[in-house]
Amino acid sequence: MSPAPRDPVAGAVTLRPLVRADLPRLRRWLDAPHVHRWWFHDTTDEALERDFGAGLRGQEPGEDLVVELAGTPVGLVQRARWRDYPEEAALIAPIHPVGPGALTVDYLIGPLELTGRGLGPRVITAAVDGGWARHPDATCVVVPVSAGNRASWRALEKAGFRRVASGDLPPDNPADPPLCHVYRLDRPPVP
């Protein structure tokens, strides 16, 4: 009898800081059609330096974190405090105020074969739990997501977020309509 095939999404989900050696892998992920559709990034060397270089040098208030699944890099999480990005906070404020204690997260899963298998909610949970630990003054996590990106907003729901608003925001991909949904998760009470 042959052993059962290993579940490709089994194993611990951990996060670690993005380092310069991760950039070639990040480029491949961002260029993958299922990622590029929603993370509409230029992936030239100059663009990667523009978008991720400040974080690599410790000059960015937000965090770029590599998602590892059982020790293998499989994605990226961006985690930040809204107050560190006042221009973006001002854009979302008419739809749903974020407040000084709000965090936000965004993520991607690079290998297509790992998508649609329940990994997204686990990544979101790891990002949120790490955010609570890193920012003891954080009160909630507020995440806008394109209304067309059903997989992402369903992953947020599975991770415990609730939809609190919908409205128009400038889309990441100019091909998308501006409608987005805003999801929120409040910090759990201390036992």
Describe how the helices and strands are arranged.
Layout: E1 13-17, H1 23-31, H2 33-36, H3 45-56, E2 63-69, E3 72-81, H4 86-92, E4 102-109, H5 119-134, E5 140-146, H6 150-158, E6 162-168, E7 179-186
Parallel strand pairs: 4-5
Antiparallel strand pairs: 1-2, 2-3, 3-4, 5-7, 6-7
Short description:
The chain has 191 residues and is of the alpha+beta class. It is built from 6 helices and 7 strands; from the N terminus they run E-H-H-H-E-E-H-E-H-E-H-E-E.
Can you describe what's shown?
- There is one protein chain.
- By secondary structure, this protein is α+β, with helices and mostly antiparallel strands.
- The protein has one domain: Aminopeptidase, CATH 3.40.630.
- Helices cover 30% and strands 27% of the residues.
- The chain contains 6 helices and 7 strands.
- It has helices at 23-31, 33-36, 45-56, 86-92, 119-134, 150-158; strands at 13-17, 63-69, 72-81, 102-109, 140-146, 162-168, 179-186.
- A hairpin with a 2-residue loop joins strand 2 and strand 3.
- It is globular and about 55 Å long.
- The mean pLDDT is 92.
